[in-house]
Amino acid sequence: MKATSELAALDPAELYERDFYAWTRHQARALSRLRGVPGNLGLDPAHLAEEVRDLGNEQRYAVESQLERLIEHLLKLEYSERAEPRRVWARSVDDARYEIERRLTPTLRRAVARRLATLYAHARRQARRALLDHPEPEAAAAIPETCPWTLDQLLAEDWYPTNRHGLPAPELP
Description:
About 65% of the residues lie in helices and about 0% in strands. It is mainly alpha-helical. The two termini are about 35 Å apart.
């Protein structure tokens, strides 16, 4: 994994291909430096920089949203005592992992890793509410305050937590 300074040293086209999120950050900074520079071909550097930055932010938001969904369903798989809808949750986990994999770049991975505690808190709240709706108050109360998993575990293709009630891992086709 290249450090941020090494990525910034890449040709912009290569950076775009390797790490879109880092490219948006680099391009937004470059566009911001064009403000007030004569001969910028009628470009609006301030708004272009904002729009390019927003493209990167949308990628980050998409990954964070999928990561929250992933965590929520992993929590339900671990803490729920119900046999169903475990397959639905497992399919959702697989889908979220696929969506994250499609967008995740090294720079974006570091940004998401820094926000894992916040993302976990939101996912935990959603999982608790869903378990209370089933009603599974003991399962909801047992969910830990802090994330019990690493980002590597969360993103591992075939990893699922062990169910607290001895239910087997859901079998998926």
